[in-house]
Amino acid sequence: MAGRIPRQFIDDLAARSDLVEVVSSRLTLKKKGKDYWGLCPFHNEKSPSFSVSPDKQFYYCFGCGASGNALSFIMEHDHLDFVEAVEALARMQGLDVPREEGMQTSAQQQEARRQKEKQVQQYRAMQLAQEFFQQQLNKPEGLEGLTYLKEKRGLSEAILQTFGLGVAPDQWSALKDQLTQAGITEAQQLELGLLAQKEETGRVYDRFRNRVIFPIRNVHGQVIGFGGRVLDDSKPKYLNSPETPLFHKGQELYGLYEARKQPGRLEKLLVVEGYMDVVALAQQGVQGAVATLGTATTPEHLRRIFRLVNEVVFCFDGDAAGQQAAERALDNVLPQMVDGRQARFLFLPQGEDPDTLVRKEGAGLFEQRVNQALPLAEFLVRHLSTGLDLKQLDGQIRLAERARPKLQALPGGLLQKRLLASLSQMTGLEASSLLPVKSDPVQATTAPARHSAPQQGRPSGQQLTTLVEKLFRLLARYPELIQQVPEDLDFAQMEAADLDVFLPIINYLRKNPSITPQVLLAYWTATREGEALRVSYQRALELDKQAAALEVEAICSRLRSLTGEKDSQQRYQALLEAAATRLLSEEENRELMQLMQQLPPSHG
Questions:
Q1: What does the alpha-carbon distance between residue 208 and residue 214 come to, in Å, rounded to a whole number?
Q2: CA dihedral angle for residue 85, residue 88, residue 89, residue 90, rounded to 10 degrees
Q3: Could you say which residues of the chain have pLDDT below 50?
Q4: What is the pLDDT of the chain when averaged over all its residues?
Q5: CA 121/CA 117 separation, integer angstroms
Q6: Class assignment of domain 387-434?
Q7: 338-374 pLDDT, tens digit each
Q8: For residues 64, 68, 71 and 75, what is the CA-based torsion angle, rounded to 10 degrees?
Q9: Angle at CA 538, nearest 5°, toward 537 and 544?
Q10: Which of 423, 441, 444, 442 has its CA nearest to residue 432?
Q11: Any idea where the domains of the chain sit in the sequence?
């Protein structure tokens, strides 16, 4: 596995990048005064409101508020994650991206190189296979497949090229022979699932024959597998590549690469069931559709989706099988529903799928259906209530029993609270019966020890942790507010949880106060700090910048008060313990009396 990119390289790369060059390679810009202007790629507009400052190396849209530097622009515009954006920016400058390999032996380094070379050869084999299938469309052997795609499915040449569609001829070794001539061994083709083998005879043959071929690409656009639909009555109707070193169906989504290539901001993803659904929707102008590959939507699929967008719409057929698939998707998406994310459920009319429906009623009506899809909360309540008479006590109890595991699967947040309130009203039960509340350690009481320090207002670790977490969420949303945090506020001395995660980011922000939230998140990607930032950003307080600044100031004031109070309490406790073993000096007695007057009275 590749090591992390050195931070110094990232800083140098960002510093030497020309933002105007980066943006103008993707947009048309015109110079007006000192700055450059163009149509914003992140929202629809008719007059330019997107400005690029060569002096500040910063872009800003006066229409939608999008802003950032060269790295954030590539991430947003090209729908790339942080590492991908760094690699893209480095390629523009003709640089290789270094990696921190850590302490590796010579043998380990040699093995890593060997694995890298093997993977390069595997990607080459898959690309050659894709080109072979695509070339068959222009040959007599592929005429039936071409007719199926263009005449029966109504696909344009542009869509065929966009998705790289092809056809496998009705031959046993056409692909095998082609790849063997290109230096790809039979063993390699078997490992990649391009060939199949009969157990009884050991004979190998092309896995895909007489099928329309759908290349499956990873997020980088590399072909990692194939799906094929038969052109006759053979079984199975659809055939996917098996699990291989490159292809894992529980992680990949068909059409995700193509969705990310679309211009503009990717707002949501529509999850459908088949390859042809994705392609047919794109043909009609409905972008952002992806399909699972012969499996239900998995947690890994959802993690991948929510790294790109905050909204997912599940699209299912209106039959019993579609309802069951929706229930599986519901179970997998519930644990992912932190604040800021949305999931909705779209059920199509009986006998329709996205392919047939979008061709029948057009993109406009189909997108209207998508926009009116059931929100998760509504679908969940409807699903839980199915078959129950909620006017009867028994029905209310059964609803509560069904709801409890679903509510417990949800992360704590606004959605869970709203559902608790709604279901509590429907069942007549207190929220604590639907979702038992864990005891709060702050409220736990213990017997006071002899000469105990005052307890009221004592800065417990939980109090400090809560304040630090709030501050962390505000800084994740508005990094520039780090300038409101006093330099002398000593977080290292606070007894708050997860300070080992918080402190490195505080120190980084002090050096980079003008960083954008997205670049901040991206900079720490694939680290423990990055995961904490991601969660904090998703749970960010719903405050505008001015209100957030006031909140940061108040939190810092309270932290300073609590930590100062803590020092006084520690000194107070030390003097009490000293008084139990010796006579205090006159100065110590005066200090003890002053502390007794300053600190809140004990309730022990």
A1: 11
A2: 120
A3: 1, 437-460, 565-566, 598-604
A4: 82
A5: 6
A6: mainly alpha
A7: 877 899 999 999 889 999 999 999 999 999 999 999 9
A8: -20
A9: 65
A10: 423
A11: 7-92, 114-240, 256-380, 387-434, 461-598
What letters, b where the CB count within 10 A reaches 16 and e where it falls short, cover 53-73?
eeeebbbbbebeebebbbbbb
Residue with token string 């003709």: 94
What CATH number should be reported for the domain whose range is 114-240? 3.90.980.10
Q: Topology of domain 461-598, per CATH?
A: DNAb Helicase; Chain A (1.10.860)
Cβ atoms within 10 Å of 296's Cβ, excluding its own: 14
CB contact set of 60 (below 8 Å; sequence gap of 6+)? 50, 51, 53, 66, 67
Topology of domain 256-380 in CATH is: Dna Topoisomerase Vi A Subunit; Chain: A, domain 2 (3.40.1360)
pLDDT of res. 100 = 67
Per-residue tokens: 169: 């001829």
* Rounded Cα distance, 214 and 277, in Å: 12
Q: What is the pLDDT of residue 355?
A: 92
| Digit-coded pLDDT (tens) for 164-217 | 999 999 999 999 999 999 999 999 999 999 999 998 898 999 999 999 999 999
Q: Which amino acid is at 143?
A: L
